[in-house]
Amino acid sequence: MGSAAELAAAALVMLGFPCLMLAALIPSVYAFAAVAAVTYLADHYLHRKGSYLINRLSKVRAGLSIRFLIRQLLLVLLLARLSLSDDLIFYGAIACFIAFYGLQAPHGALVTLIRNRRRMPVATRNVDLKSRIRIPDAPPRRLLHRSAEKMLHLDLFAVAGLLLSAVLDSSAAGFTGIGLTVGLGCLYVATLVPYVRGRRVPPRAEVVLAAVDDWLAAHKPETVLYFSGSRDSAYQVNMWLETMERLRTRPLIILRERAILNNLAPTTVPVICVPGGVHLMNMDLSTVRVALYAANVGKNIHLLRVPTMKHVFIGHGDSDKLASVNPYSKVYDEVWTAGRAGRDRYAIADVGVRDEDIVEVGRPQLAPIRTWQGGSGDAADGRCPTVLYAPTWEGWDDNPGNTSILLAGENIVKRLVTADPPVRVLYKPHPFTGTRSAAAKAAHQRITALVEKAAAERAADPRFTADSDAQQRARAELARVEARLAELAGAGGERGDEAEATREGLVDARRHEEIARLRAEWNDAYWRSFPDHEHRVITGAEPRLYDCFNVSDAMVSDISSVVSDFIASGKPYAVTDSAELGAEEFKRQNTAVRAAVILTNSAAELGDLLDAVRDPSADPLAADRRELKRYLLGPDEPASIEQFNTAVADLALKAETRNVGQESRSGAANADPAEAAELTTALPGQRAASAGDTDGVTAG
């Protein structure tokens, strides 16, 4: 429903207009001026905050233009009630507001036209289009940002002038305000006109697409990461950026939504955002041999139709959820999983994905997760063990097994914050938590309150001491790093619009490396900036989930890829059986929990997890975790990135073999009859070999 301040501002806006009418009918110039000021300020506040309540007002036919028009009509009513209807200023006011609203149409049309003409058919990062086509500077941001609001607020001069005229009984102020409102409105419209024509407009779509094809011909990309999704799903492609940077082939990222591009993490890999399906299908991707897909979405069909490359589903997490065995996966040439578990999962699901089309490549993204050596959380070492609670979100339905937030979350946190000997709790919920379910949102808020209350109580407990000087130094380090990151962000430059960002989108490699180093320094300083016994609620992008893994001694979570990833650390973990299937059935259905402490919704079993953390030598599940890690994530050697690169190279070879075979067939079809007969006798054997290669069947 928005913040309390936003709700209050919306209430002031809606209640202000009846008050304006009352002030006009009385009539009272001072009351009208005061209430009008309140409605202006409340409206401005809602726009500045970007409140969704602005859209809600439009839904009830109280949109921005209507609100301004009503205020102006009420001002005319006030003038009439003040017996000024026979004065020239009265007619001037009516003429002013009619003319002013007449300017709204060309103003809105120009703004829309400028935005449409500057929206190119593609947007790019790390692609050199600047040397190929002319992309002019964007119009000044002050002209287009919240342009309708700025235009309408020009009526302030007329409103203020007319009210002043009513008080002073002199028309001079009124006509001055009228002149300023109409004059500035005309000036605003005139200022926009040059940006819809001539050299201030980017080239036509066909010219831009030709430039992209020219760049593709020069760059010759070999491996593509393709992604389509909503703005909130950008994390699914961001998790693969570092892997793409470490490929031994020339990489390219293709996105389908502009919102994803705007939320893409910094990368040195070339990125092309192509919203139009026809534009993508006409793009020259003839050098690409392997296409990687991080999500199963309908728009994948626009690239899947290209036969000269092999198509691979790599997903965005490896878990026992139904999404990990989507029948859609049949459309790909291969499906890559982290370990043997992914292969077995498809076999059990029997959704049509053949075993020979599955390749185990490990999880390259898990490289930052440090392997547990045991003992970091011992009571003997004087440290307070850390337990991470990282539940997943409520999902798209009300299945109780989706998340522990609703039925078990509060019990888990209560037992952890009251544990004896004590432990530290880090609560890091899924970023989607509460976005669909009001009950999940309320549960999340209660859990947050529990953690914050426990943190406050621990801060006042004399048993827990902290090195305030060290924390102060860490906070100073944080401030230094954040200032430098902000400076580098500014140096990168906020581009005027998408077209300008495309023109200037070449990454500075040294700046990119410095930012990566600074982020590592920030993470180190962050954990040192508060006591290692302090409970924390962690939301937002930083610190990252894997950073939380590395400072934790154990984790409590739900069935999701988070569990599979945490297994890479080798640390003890617990998973909540929120649907109350029973421990044995829960383990049977969910591979990732076979080495976990299984929690019921009461969380009574948490003691077993804490015992394993405090005394690793007595941990009964340590050997099971090592075995499960290999089963789920593959062997530690060779490194996952090496396995991934090998899989890319092998599949590229199969694609090339297929393409050569097709060229041979085409040559045979165009040859003279004698040559065709000779080629035909050799073709069946070639066909068999090619089919074996294409299907991925090897002797091993």
Number of helices: 28
Q: What is the beta-strand fraction?
A: 5-15%
The gross shape turns out to be: globular
Helix content: 40-55%
Radius of gyration over alpha carbons?
A: 32 Å
Total strands: 14
* Class derived from helix and strand content: alpha/beta
Largest sheet: 8 strands, mixed
Which stretches are poorly predicted, pLDDT < 50 over at least 5 residues? Answer: 375-380, 679-700
Order of strands across the main sheet: 1-4-3-2-5-6-7-8
CA distance, first residue to last residue:
60 Å
- Name the average pLDDT: 88
Task: Tell me about this structure.
This protein is α/β, with parallel strands linked by helices and 700 residues long. The protein has 28 helices and 14 strands. The longest helix is centred in the N-terminal third of the chain and has 31 residues, at 88-118.
Compose a concise summary of this entry:
Helices cover 53% and strands 8% of the residues. It contains 28 helices and 14 strands.
Q: Which structural traits does this protein have?
A:
globular; 28 helices; disordered C terminus; alpha/beta; single chain; 8-stranded mixed beta sheet; 6-stranded parallel beta sheet; 8% strand; 700 residues; 14 strands
